[in-house]
## 1
Amino acid sequence: MSDITQDDVGYVAPAENAEQDLYHPKSWITKYVFCQDAKVIAIQYASTAIAIGLVALVLSWLMRLQLGFPDSFSFIEPEDYYQFITAHGMIMVVYLLTALFLGGFGNYMIPLMVGARDMAFPYVNMVSYWVYLTAVFVLIASFFVPGGPTGAGWTLYPPQAILSGTPGSDGGIILMLVSLALFIVGFTMGGLNYVVTVLQSRTRGMTLMRMPLTIWGIFVATVLALLAFPALFVGAIMMLLDKILGTSFFMPNIVELGEHLSYGGGSPILFQHLFWFFGHPEVYIVALPAFGIVSDLIAVHSRRHIFGYRMMVWAIVIIGALSFVVWAHHMYVSGMNPYFGFFFATTTLIIAIPTALKVYNWTLTLWKGNIRLNTPMLFAIGFIVTFLNGGITGLFLGNVAIDVPLSDTMFVVAHFHMVMGVAPMLVVFGAIYHWFPLITGKMYSETLGKFHFWVTFLGAYLIYFPMHYLGFVGVPRRYFELGDTQIFTESVGQLNAFISIMTFIVGFAQIVFFYNMFRSYAAGKKSEMNPWGAASLEWQTPEMPPGHGNWGKSLPLVYRWAYDYGVPGATHDFVPQNMAPKDVPMEKKARKSTRSRKA
Amino acid sequence: MITALIIVLVAVGSVVFHLMSPWWWTEIASNWGFIDTTIIITFWVTGVVYTAILLFVGYCIWKFRYKENRKVEYEPENHKLETWLTVLTSIGVVVMLAPGLIAWKQFITVPDDATEFEILGQQWQWNYRLPGKDGKLGKSDNRNITAENPFGVDSKDPNGKDDILIEADDLHLPIGKPVKLLLRSMDVLHNFYVPQFRGKMDIVPGMVTYFWFTPTRTGNFEVLCAELCGVGHHAMRGNVIVDDQASYDKWLGEQQTFAQTMAQYENGNKLGKTAGLALKPELGNATQKVSSQ
């Protein structure tokens, strides 16, 4: 333990990192539009992601209208429904969550938390955002081409994705694939930047094993993304070729509605392997930053160090590595070689061990802490509940034989929404509340924040917990309507209606969140410096919000890990990372006893 | 206090919901009861862990609620505790994984006496091909598909002559006999799913996939397509009727063989249903049917 607490750091030499040459904006445009400051880029990324996320929210309402009240909304045709679910899924996973965690939180937090003035490559960082924005516009454009956006499901499985029985199989799918390729190009620029900054630009004393878990989560997630996205890129390009040039990478011999198509010899399963080789790590690309951030929220607001820091770090690394050898658990009933099932079920359930340890350590951080139940902490607790729930249902689906009856049912929908929809979104909200004072210098309204939490958390739980049971009944996912089916009794319809009503409530409650954010930003109370009493570096900047270059004249020196809360003998309940041991105010009696302890 | 109470209520409420839920699996109609057992084992292991952790969180929130002068415990690591938790979790994982792998082994090991038959999926209907008296299916390939040969059976293969073709109609199966389903697709991915049988497998164009089961209960069971296959996906339904042997034999006797349908074609008076190949306009019809439902 001694390598991360203050004990063995006697003296830290002054900064030897060469000062970074920063681009100083000369006009409004270079300050707020084509900006190279990671903090502004972060806000741009986050705003774009949330804006497109709202489109996904509206799409989810439309699909829930259809599912909850199948006979009442004649304007929703099957084609529309399949387009809604596809766009909703793709936006949420890629354009919202990935962009928000890495482009948004990554950009804002990495330089501040590791003590850097900015990202290693500010110009590339700026280009990354503009390419991402282009990808979003291409995605939006697909709504306006003849035939509309693709309705192939977010997994875009060929052959149907590019055949005429699927909505949007002309312009829609082409723009979707182009947009994904652009997203990956943009992300790669940003991602390299995050990795290099973490490895290269940490301030003196900020060893890897002193980094806050937020940074560990974002760092490992970025590495995963850099390795996983190329598989999707390849898949997207090959499918584009199949669509546009008539190649047959994924297309076997097909008779479509009586006509022999000119394809032959390709493999639909090959695409699935490429897709999930990206798709499974993608789950952790979203989850690992959430793991990291929530660890910090829990520690700060429990006024206690994170429990088992080193195990938490290793768990992130191990989960990240294992996430590359579990992808085919999405394909147990895909028709791949059935013997893969043994391997992938085993690796999948092994991943549960480090993941469970993380859950234990979050709860053990609460143990003997001093818990402040403010809004960020409530969201963190909501995350523990929903993530645990979603993780547990993952043990059902990962266990190959159980997946047979449950795959492609609403159980799967409930599972992945709980684990990578609700849980990470709760962290996003918690993180926004937590860092709102840092980013804006203002304080948000606790009352509105708590109201937002309870409606969102309980509402989301009521949406997704019962949904699992529809899967047990056998309700398939991606069904426009259930029709007259013996086994789907009236109660199935009633539950669907209930779930739909809850989605509208939870969705509308987000207005409170936006109101709170805008109102507090415009007219909120000014926040004091470091209002939470946090020990990590981002709160120790000379100004709040931090200025261009973050650290004023000189970079901070780091003497300890980011979790020195409740240090025995210290006068205050936290010691900032950049406080030298000799400066730590100690209680008189304690000073003696700590000395004797050291001796 | 209220927060702690709500967390406890979420834990208790989830358990109560589970016990009271009217939404539960359908009565099983195949030999895959062991899969259900594995699910129950998983429910017990994970349910206990879930409830325990939520109650612990609730307790912590109440017991260690903020007080100005509370001293928190400074104990960054506790190797003994972490080791114990790792070991216990690993045991839990083994308890769940072992029956899962055993069940999977059974699922992919087809008994020798299983009768093979083919399911041919197409947008958006189910077709079946049963072996005739010789007990063997003839070779088939999508490239052979024509209006008169909708299954693409190889007309040169003698095994195929007596194959029984069922186009867009109900499938009958005899009770108590293991069947191996050979799954073939004409166009896109489909998935043959009957909730009561518990089994399920994707149907992939360009290859033949399979799974097996033994029907254990007579009755009429609905087939649902479980892999998104285009705009008519949700309307791709069918029926499997599990019969006792006598009714099954009677039904089987009434079906047409490949040779018979070909002969009818050559005679120019094709009977029976139109081949599913009736062409593009059908897409419009199918979509219409789907929307009007």
Note: Chain A touches chain B through 115 residues (CB under 8 Å).
## 2
Amino acid sequence: MMLDIQNLYVSYQGIKALRGVSLQVDRGEMVAIIGSNGAGKSTLLNAISRLVPAGEGRIVFNGVDLRRSIAHKVARLGVLQVPEGRQILGEMTVLENLQVGQLALGGRPAKYSLSDVYALFPVLEERHAQLGGTLSGGQQQMLAIGRAMMGAPEVLLLDEPSLGLSPLMTDQVFAALGRLNADGLTVMLVEQNAHRALELTSRAYVLDRGLVVREGKSRDLADDPSIIASYLGV
Amino acid sequence: MLAQQILNGVVSGSIYALFALGFTLLFGVQKLLNLAHGAVFMAGAFIAYYCVIIGLPFWVGLVFAMIASGVISIIVELVAFRQIRKQVDPEFPAIVSSLGVDLILINIAQNLSNTRVLSMPFGTFPIEFYNIFGLRISLLQIVILVLVAALVGALVYYLQKTSFGRQVRAVAQNERAAALLGVSAASVYRQTFFIAGALAGVAGVLIGLSFNSIHFLMGEPYLLYAFVVVVIGGIGSVPGAVVAAILLGVTQALTKAYLSSTLSDAIIFSLLFVALLFFPNGLFGRAVLSAGGDRK
């Protein structure tokens, strides 16, 4: 097991955002976390990345308890988050954004080269000298993923990568994620677009008000009438 | 005469640039004012003075002052900012805490110097003059210009071309995103404070030597000038700070020469208001965001 979360509680600013969440991600898996707004999906990723303080419970990555670590050290272990809203360094060029991404290596060997990133997202090579802030939303999402690739991710945590993207752009981004996973990268995908997320992943957890209410194969969940009613919006 | 005044103004302006660059760099990175920056400048002058007094060559004193001021600046960060930065609204507490550290440093210097004005012993730096195109320029002025140009060049190279510089800019733009990429903000703060302090220390030594006057309150007017430089140049902008500092130095030299030496500060700050009417974001500032996004 690569990432093992046991009975995790997180409360901050007086809100109990996670109330005993347990989930596991194996090496090479692509797992979706779906749920409505405020279910605690982003909090879960931010607790793993140590951006929000974790309460009780365990977050174990390859045998290391992340609760004792801090944000930049978690990144250097290869637990790399592509945050909600991309968080591109807008005043730096595309290339500089990718170079900053290399810092997460922290002495570990690289997994992807610059040309691997450019091969997956050719638009980044075309625009390498442009400021990150001048890219479109979809291109910024590609840059955010490429930037994480430069840091040799062991597991890639994505927070709402489809947010604000056109369906066409979402297709491109999800196709790239599928390719990365097919090459062996472990991916944990948080999405409000449950339909797309269940299509892409093999397993999924459904989060509701800070609790895991369902888990199973993505295909089964996508066919489940109660899931369809609550999350697939038909 | 005019050209001579402009030359003198450029020389003092280049020292202001050294001081203001560190100030604007710190503000750009942490979005908090470091009001102890003037005391670090003063500390640099004191350290070089005591090095010379105990018989070390001036150059050794300068290098030692540079390093020691950098270290003092790291301590300022540790005491005045490290904890306060974690607060939700750190701006006001940071003003109070950095002012507190400023006063402590000033008080230590006041006691060390028994409230006297110190001056470097005669012969610390050779007094030699050259004539270039009819302008009189001293060896000290030449050394100042060369030294400042080298330090500013090194700083620009460092920020733009090195991995550390990218980390500084990443933290300045988005500390949270930088952390997710493996950038240690604590280490960025420590290193920027060292650099800013080292630059301030050199500026202090150069001012102390130029005016042959070193005293415990010498940093405070320069802190105010740094505000002018940063506001005119555009918050967080390195080229803006250099241009604005030289403009400030030249304006000061010209007002002192042609208008009134006692009113020079009043004139400079009046010009600041006029300049802000036409360039509300400073000469090189695009908007407040050019300092690099929000704190969060």
Note: The interface with chain A takes residues 163, 166-167, 169-170, 173-174, 176-185, 290, 292-293 of chain B (CB under 8 Å).
